Backbone:
């Protein structure tokens, strides 16, 4: 049971992690993130890299969709913009610590342009507008050969930090984890500011928000800019991680993947974003690992069970949506509540 | 003496539980050290068993896995057994890379088979850095047949560019006194579709074959009437389709026939499997294309094709027809093994550089009839193929030319 959680000052009340328990857990988490690339095997570290990138991108989408109610089906396009911007800059010797924000800003600039229709349209209509952008940008990625390498794609030189090339999964894992933690803290802070509250007000009822004095143009575009900035940084990290990228990666399927992640995790929740990304990344891996174990004893198991594993994954997503519409974050919240109240109320 | 092997007091329930837990834990650990001791060679793979390329991926997986079985039954590689580990990539780059990294981390296999061009490009960065593994995949992208930029990758067949060159050579051989036949290129707006087009146009120009029309479509386009009217105006003698598996080829052919055009339709490897051509229905009549391999029913004088047929009949009694994807997987396996065999017999470790050198030393190598002539892998591809034509009477694809080899 949590006790002695006294909030006796505004500073304490405003703290991101107000209790000692939270601070200890956070410190342990950071320590684990720092140690994992050294202790985890190559495969697990590679999963950590992919997971970190998914968390950043999904956070961006959650800021737009989960917090502000602006449905976007074009996240993959913004990731592509970030990836190609970073690739272009890296090929010209720009260090990663400049290329990453530049990639985010480039995606954000495009996000502002795309966000303009959100003043006139919303809901499914906005989703279709962003869908159009998705197709348009894939076309640009394929055709703008001098910058994107066309259909053959681009190679991205490895990021270098203090002369050390970040050309292994472990080194990239540190960079990705650092960016993910930084951006998550940024998002958590943002969402309790005036801007974050404006986002929530717009999501709940934009007309009421406007009556309350919230400038819809400014805040909707801000949401688009911030969300796409995150997507751009995620795309840039993806480029640095794989070091080779083709336009066929940034498809609608990827945008749907992130939309599924934030819905499964819980719309409008940063914890839900992380849990959703975890679910969408790790569950297929776990199912595939199960198939691999069975294949050691059962001949032909891989070809029989691989399609089944996709069905199971789909059923799991449906199951979560049916039995817990608020997403994984709600399950997590219930578990926490149980321990907070234990043993007085189990 | 049997008595002395037991622990004092006999096996208690606790000991049995401990032993069981220990065994379970060990089974979950990577088997690297065990494999090293037993001398097994791991063949890693991330075939697309599900997803959009599943029509081919299952066959690729079966072909490569079955080749390893067959090879083990025939002595293995330099006396060492093969262990095939393949996991589904779902034709997604993230998943293919994840499978690749997982198998590499657990087993560090000397050879690995991926699923796509995107995978090959992303993995080549890591493979070049590690220098431990020779790779291949079902991609015949021209970029990948580059021993300098992609040193540890090879393709078990011609590049897409070489495939179209083979078709053009065949078309050139059909020229009559009236002049060279004209060609139209119809391709999908994908990396796969666009890959050979520039090279094809250059080769057509070299041969003096006029390219009278060039049409780009979506991969699975449905309405092709506008494109067909352009073809009708251009009146090509041959229409080469590339970058598709099936749709929209049958629709194109149907509408071109309805428009009264006099043409021959041709395709490249992935639209040349018998099951694919059967699915074209009436449009299959007269269908031609380039195939780097014999069809599985063509076993006369081809010992490997016979071995494939026999092994598939034994291991997969329900498989009525052995698809070209299976043959491709089998050939990739045999090239992997030939490379490793050459290294091991020369007393060399299975490193990337040694295997690359062994790969490039393969010249005049007999594939046992999978390909019609002895092959060379000096350029990390086998620029050889043959034109086949669909025979509606036998419902089989029959040779329309001899084997044609390009320079590569």
Residues:
């Amino acid at each position: 049971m949590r006790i002695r959680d006294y909030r006796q000052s505004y500073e304490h009340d405003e703290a991101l992690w107000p209790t000692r328990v939270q601070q200890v857990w956070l410190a342990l988490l950071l320590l684990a993130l720092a140690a994992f690339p050294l202790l985890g095997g190559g495969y697990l570290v590679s999963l950590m890299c992919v997971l970190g990138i998914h968390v950043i991108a999904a956070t961006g989408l959650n800021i737009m969709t989960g917090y502000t109610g602006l449905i976007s089906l074009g996240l993959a396009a913004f990731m592509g913009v970030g990836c190609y911007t970073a690739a272009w800059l890296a090929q010209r010797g720009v260090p990663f610590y400049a290329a990453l924000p530049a990639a985010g800003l480039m995606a954000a600039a495009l996000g502002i342009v795309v966000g303009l229709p959100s003043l006139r349209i919303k809901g499914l209509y906005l989703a279709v507008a962003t869908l159009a952008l998705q197709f348009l940008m894939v076309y640009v990625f394929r055709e703008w050969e001098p910058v994107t390498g066309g259909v053959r794609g681009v190679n991205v030189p490895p990021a270098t930090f203090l002369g050390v090339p970040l050309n292994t999964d472990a080194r990239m894992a540190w960079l990705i984890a650092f960016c993910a933690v930084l951006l998550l803290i940024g998002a958590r802070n943002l969402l309790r500011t005036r801007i974050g509250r404006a986002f929530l007000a717009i999501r709940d009822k934009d007309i009421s928000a406007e009556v309350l004095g919230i400038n819809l143009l400014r805040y909707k575009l801000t949401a688009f800019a911030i969300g796409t900035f995150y997507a751009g940084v995620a795309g840039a990290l993806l480029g640095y991680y794989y070091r080779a990228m083709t336009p066929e990666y940034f498809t609608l399927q990827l945008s749907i993947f992130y939309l599924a992640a934030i819905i499964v995790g819980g719309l409008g929740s940063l914890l839900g974003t992380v849990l959703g990304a975890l679910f969408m990344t790790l569950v297929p891996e776990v199912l595939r690992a199960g198939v691999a174990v069975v294949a050691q004893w059962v001949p032909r198991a891989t070809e029989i069970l691989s399609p089944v594993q996709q069905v199971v994954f789909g059923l799991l997503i449906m199951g979560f949506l049916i039995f817990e519409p608020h997403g994984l974050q709600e399950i997590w919240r219930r578990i926490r509540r149980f321990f907070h109240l234990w043993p007085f109320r189990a | 003496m049997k008595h002395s092997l037991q622990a004092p007091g006999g096996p208690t329930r606790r000991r049995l539980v401990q032993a069981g837990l220990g065994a379970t834990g060990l089974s979950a650990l990577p088997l690297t050290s065990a494999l090293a001791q037993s001398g097994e060679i791991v063949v890693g793979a991330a075939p697309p068993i599900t997803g959009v390329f599943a029509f081919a991926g299952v066959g690729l997986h079966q072909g490569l896995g079955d080749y390893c079985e067959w090879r083990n039954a025939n002595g293995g590689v330099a006396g060492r057994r093969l262990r095939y580990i393949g996991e589904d990539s779902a034709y997604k780059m993230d998943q293919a890379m994840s499978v690749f990294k997982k198998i590499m981390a657990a087993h560090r296999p000397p050879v690995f088979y991926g699923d796509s061009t995107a995978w090959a490009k992303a993995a080549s960065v890591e493979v070049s850095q590690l220098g431990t593994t020779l790779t291949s995949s079902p991609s015949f992208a021209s970029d990948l047949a580059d021993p300098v930029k992609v040193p540890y990758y090879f393709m078990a067949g011609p590049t897409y560019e070489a495939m179209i060159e083979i078709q053009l050579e065949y078309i050139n051989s059909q020229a009559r006194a009236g002049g060279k036949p004209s060609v139209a290129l119809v391709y999908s707006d994908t990396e796969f579709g666009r890959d050979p087009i520039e090279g094809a146009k250059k080769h057509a120009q070299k041969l003096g074959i006029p390219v009278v029309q060039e049409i780009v479509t979506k991969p699975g386009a449905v309405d092709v009437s506008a494109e067909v009217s352009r073809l009708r105006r251009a009146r090509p003698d041959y229409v080469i389709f590339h970058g598709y598996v099936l749709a929209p080829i049958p629709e194109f052919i149907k509408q071109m026939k309805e428009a009264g055009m006099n043409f021959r339709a041709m395709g490249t490897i992935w639209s040349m499997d018998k099951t694919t051509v059967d699915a074209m229905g009436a449009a299959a009549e007269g269908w031609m294309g380039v195939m780097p391999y014999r069809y599985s029913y063509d076993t006369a004088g081809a010992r490997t094709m016979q071995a494939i047929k026999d092994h598939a009949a034994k291991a997969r009694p329900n498989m009525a027809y052995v698809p070209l994807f299976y043959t491709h997987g089998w050939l990739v396996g045999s090239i992997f093994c030939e490379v490793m065999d050459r290294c091991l017999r020369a007393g060399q470790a299975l490193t990337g550089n040694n295997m690359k050198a062994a790969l490039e030393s393969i010249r005049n190598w007999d594939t046992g009839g999978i390909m019609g002539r002895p092959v060379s892998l000096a350029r990390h591809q086998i620029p050889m193929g043959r034109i086949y034509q669909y025979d509606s009477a036998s419902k089989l694809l029959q040779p329309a030319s001899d084997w044609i080899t390009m320079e590569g």
The beta strands of chain A are 154-155, 160-161, 164-165, 244-245. The mean pLDDT of chain A is 91. The interface with chain B takes residues 41-43, 46-47, 50, 142, 150-153, 155, 167, 169, 242-249, 253, 284-285, 288, 291-293, 296, 302-303, 306-307, 309-310 of chain A (CB under 8 Å).
